[in-house]
Amino acid sequence: MNGIHTRKRMWTLVGLAAVGALTLTACNDDPAADTASSTPPPAAAPTTPAASASTPAAASPSGAATSAPAAAPATGGGTDATPGQTFKIGQPAQVQFTSGSTKGVIALSVTAIEAGDPADLAALKLGDKAKGLVPYYVRYSITNTGTTDLAYTSVDHVKGLLPDGSEAQELMIIGGFAKCANPSLPKGFTNGQTAQGCAVALAPAATKVSGAEYWGAPYSLGKGAIFWK
Fold it and tell me: Which domains does the chain have, with CATH numbers?
């Protein structure tokens, strides 16, 4: 399948997430901001975009990559994180990861939560929807610890948390955003390979984003997620 990079008009909308938390969605076709596009996979592989490397990635092992059948789950040999479990920032959690028909095991770790500048949002043209809000960049590391090639899959479902434990407002970006880029995992993402992800969370100026949660399957929002604080 040939890679096609489709530019989209910049637009914004406000919607309600499944649990009632306010979410802002923005499209950005600014070429300068679109720093990380990825090559679409073969027809059998998922193409959903995911978070990208905006911090240096860990060294990857050399050698030929091998792939397990997409539908075959892999085990990392450790103990899976349990719903409700809390980790320290920088501490990895073992996750049984699923993206479409692809199953594998990853070590997922929120590595940093960085306060941005409200001016960072200007390119997204959110207008009054972002008034009084400060962007925070939740950066996380993804390491393939299983036997399945996870190329072109998406590791998202990461949200910021406020100091009281409530969810920060989420900013979903369609297109590129240089401050927090989000391509899918690269080709040949096999055992030992590491990539960096980023999610944007918004908080009122009077508070901050101090933690994060992952609620992708087999986890769920709220008490069913895993947390970093």
Answer: 12-57+68-223 (2.60.40.1240)
